[in-house]
Every structure is written in structure tokens, then in C-alpha cells.
Specification:
globular, 273 residues
């Protein structure tokens, strides 16, 4: 099934120009960039929707070969079939203050490479495509997400935001929120201290790295929260965020990520929500 969507509004920082831009201008910003990025070239070359570039295999394809097309980029059927999907409508067991975790895809090298391009190469347009890919899975949960009051993306520390120029989790979460009629809140959860990159750490050091790194300053008694991050590996960041939300009174917290690292112990049957 192919979906064509319009980019909504959310602010990001353009690290090259040190100014704030709106995502409605993402495509233009990419095209005008001095960087010779693949994404910018695609948007400049493509004059119609009969062709698109698959973000996974980097090949130019006909629309008939697409699983999803989104503004001249997409994912082809062949690449989509190679992604490891999780069971539809069957979330993973949660951690501590997290009731359960929903992740449509397994965090394999194929998906990891594309996430890193989006995360570190200023390829903002991929955010909406990732949201499209996630929505197919979320639709299998019926109205289950309707009980939640807010979707809250995992925040970046101010220093990391200035370095990267945008919060990749917030960008995906905005599209998910809009498509499911859920309010996105970026003002209630704050990262109060800078941490090392989790990808550089292993085991217990990951948990210690983000322990007490987040604070929820608003009273959210009785609120039900969807906590969003791009990837769940060990769950350390999600647990730390959920602890802060629970301390502020959250009644229920569900974690939602694009991908999840599947460990041996995760192969046990998934739970119903």
C-alpha cells in the first residue's frame, strides 16, 4: 500500500546556518543545501511520482515497485520483505514502570544503517517515511492507543541538540501523534544532565549512564503516556524516562519505538495489552 503525505510543522535547528527552520521547508532545505547528499539530489532530480529512491537499497525504482512512497523517497517491496517484523498486535513485555513496548521492527543491520543516516546525516525527510512504516503495524492494535493522553518523545540534552540540530525521536513522534489523534508533549520531560552516547557503552554502564538523567516537572497525575524513542536496545533510556514520568504521577506508560533489539530472552511469547 502506498501513502502520499504532507510534511507537518515542527521546529528543528539547521546546524549549518544556525537558524530555525520549519519541516514544511524540509524538502526545500535539503535541495538548497550545499551538501551533495543523496536525499537532496533525489528531490532535485525527481519531477514526478512515477519514480522514487528506496532509502534502503539506494536504487531508483518505479512506483509500481514501491511498498510505500513518500515525497520522492520510499521503500521498495523487495527491501520491505527483507526487514524483520515483529508480531502484529502483540507488544513486548515492559520494564518496571513501562506496561509494554510496541516496536514494529527488529533492530537489524539493514534497518540500523538507515536509522543512522536519518539520525546523523540531516536526512529529515526519512522521519515521515518511518512513521508510515510504523503506522501499518500500529493499525493492527485497533483503538488501543486511543486511551493515551500524550505521546512524549525522549528528549535530547541541549548540548546534543545543538550538535545534531534536531531530535530524531521528536520528528517521528510528531507524525505518529498527528495520524493517531494524540497530543504530543515536548515540554513535560527534560534531560537534566548530559550523558555519554549509549551506543558506546555496554551492559550495566548503559543503565548507570542515564540513571536520574530525566525530570518531569509537571504534575501528570492520572495521565496515560506513550513514551517514544527511535530504538529500544537494552531499554535503559526508556526505563529512566518512565521512572521520571511515574514519579510525576503518570498512571500508565507504554513505550513505542521504531525498532527493538531482539535478545535471546525476548524470544519468549509476547504479551497482550
Amino acid at each position: 500500500m502506498m501513502r502520499h503525505i504532507q510534511i507537518d510543522s515542527i521546529s528543528v535547528r539547521n546546524a549549518k546556518t544556525s537558524c530555525t527552520v520549519q519541516p514544511a521547508l524540509y524538502a526545500d532545505a535539503l535541495c538548497r543545501s550545499e551538501q551533495d547528499s543523496r536525499m537532496g539530489n533525489v528531490l532535485e532530480r525527481s519531477g514526478n511520482m512515477s519514480k522514487f529512491i528506496c532509502i534502503f537499497c539506494d536504487e531508483r525504482k518505479n512506483a509500481s515497485d514501491a511498498h510505500i512512497i513518500n515525497n520522492h523517497i520510499g521503500i521498495c517491496d523487495n527491501c520491505y520483505k527483507k526487514l524483520n517484523k515483529t508480531a502484529p498486535g502483540r507488544p513486548f513485555k515492559g520494564y518496571r514502570n513501562i506496561s509494554y513496548v510496541i516496536s514494529p521492527f527488529e533492530y537489524t543491520s539493514r534497518l540500523r544503517d538507515t536509522i543512522l543516516k536519518f539520525k546523523f546525516d540531516n536526512q529529515w525527510a526519512i522521519a515521515s517515511l518511518f512513521a508510515d512504516m510504523m503506522q501499518e503495524h500500529l493499525d493492527t492494535y485497533g483503538d488501543a492507543l486511543g486511551e493515551f493522553d500524550y505521546i512524549v518523545p525522549v528528549p535530547l540534552h541541549k548540548k546534543r541538540f545543538l550538535e545534531r540540530g534536531y531530535n530524531q525521536s521528536e520528528m517521528i513522534a510528531k507524525y505518529i501523534a498527528d495520524r493517531n489523534g494524540i497530543i504530543m508533549r515536548t515540554d513535560i520531560l527534560k534531560r537534566i544532565r548530559a550523558t555519554e552516547k549509549q551506543s558506546k557503552l555496554k551492559g550495566i554502564n548503559r543503565a548507570l549512564n542515564v540513571k536520574d538523567a530525566f525530570l518531569c516537572e509537571e504534575n501528570i497525575d492520572g495521565k496515560k503516556i506513550i513514551l517514544f524513542d527511535d530504538v529500544c536496545t537494552t531499554g535503559g533510556t526508556l526505563r529512566s524516562c518512565a521512572d521520571a514520568l511515574a514519579d510525576a504521577g503518570a498512571e500508565k506508560i507504554c513505550a513505542l519505538t521504531l525498532a527493538i533489539a531482539i535478545h535471546f530472552e525476548d524470544k519468549k511469547p509476547q504479551i497482550m495489552y
